[in-house]
Specification:
The complex is a heterodimer of chains A (about 300) and B (about 60).
Chain A (H helix, E strand, L loop, with lengths): L1 H20 L5 H18 L6 H15 L10 E5 L6 E4 L3 E5 H5 L4 H16 L2 H16 L7 H18 L3 H17 L6 H12 L7 H6 L3 H12 L54 H8 L3
Parallel strand pairs in A: 1-3
Antiparallel strand pairs in A: 2-3
Helix pairs in contact in A: 1-6, 3-5, 5-8, 5-9, 6-7, 7-12, 8-11, 9-11
Chain B lengths: L11 H6 L4 H9 L4 H10 L17
The chains are: A mainly alpha (about 300), B mainly alpha (about 60).
Chain lengths: ~300, ~60
Amino acid sequence: MPAQNIDLNRLFSIGRDAVTAVAGISEAEEIAMGREIAGRVLGAAPLVNDPALQSYVNRVGRWIALQSERPDLPWRFAVIESPAINAFAAPGGYVLVTRRLYEILDTEAQLAGVLAHEIAHVVRRHHVTVLQKSAALSAGAQLAQRDNRAAVINNMIGTGAEIFARGLDKSAEHEADAVGVVLAARAGYNPFGLIDVLHKMAARGSGDGSMALLFKTHPLPGDRLAQLGELLAPQVGRLPPGREPTIRRVAAGAGPLRTPSAAVPAPVVPAAPAPAEQAAPKSGIDPVQLLRGILGR
Amino acid sequence: MTSTIGIRGLDEEELRQAQFDAGQIRQLDAFAASRGDAQAHAGGAGLGAERVDFLGSGARE
């Protein structure tokens, strides 16, 4: 019957869109998406105004990333103004650590542990996987409003920043811990830096308001320590002792870095050519077009 | 979430409402470290690359 055929054709067509939505995302697309997400987080929590600190964190982070399977991503690291204890990784190589977390660290090995955990999320594409699933769900939710693609796309962009509020699944966090310990060790740091930080978090407990989001989006520190302990036990004797260099402190009096465009809404095209070797954000990639591509349009 | 005057926290609602800041991203780019920068830092801190296998379920290579 014609009416039924039309409905079925429409359904199959929409189904293809949903499948396309979860198809592979290229590295260039991943980087563009991560840049959009990181830019949104920075819109809420700006960089700490301490250029020497920011450069330092980038050198430490890049050194660790060089030990990973994706050494040449356009890695970007930063300390951001926030009283929350937390750290974020966005696809393509963006890693943001809150000032409050940074300030509880005692050594560069502990910083390395935190950065390595976030690098592991990027290397293993944990957030990309979640965003792909989200794209498929969004496409499915729009079955009745197929013509309203703009709404779907906006929903996807919003999901990008919201992902940090929802978090990843626990297995991704445990994997990032396990990979992070190894990456820090490969970089020559004491491999127990991340474990030290988890102990600090455990000692603060779930009553510490500065860790509310962290506790909501991650397994409890005690569970993470137990899981890491099981994995480390057979191998602990073979781990190099590593080093614990002195960590650079935040400059006294440093506040948030103010930029002229603080209140400017998201641009359609990612801005700013990056320094030479890291020509990161592939200029010309339009996040909206990218998301249309992910959604099959 | 507690917040100091002039410093914004990062709770769920702020992340959902966050607006892209092009100026901040440009600053972030300016702080990027090259491979050479990273290697120089490691050398200065007495760090050298070590061969370490992935742990249990973390191993995928």
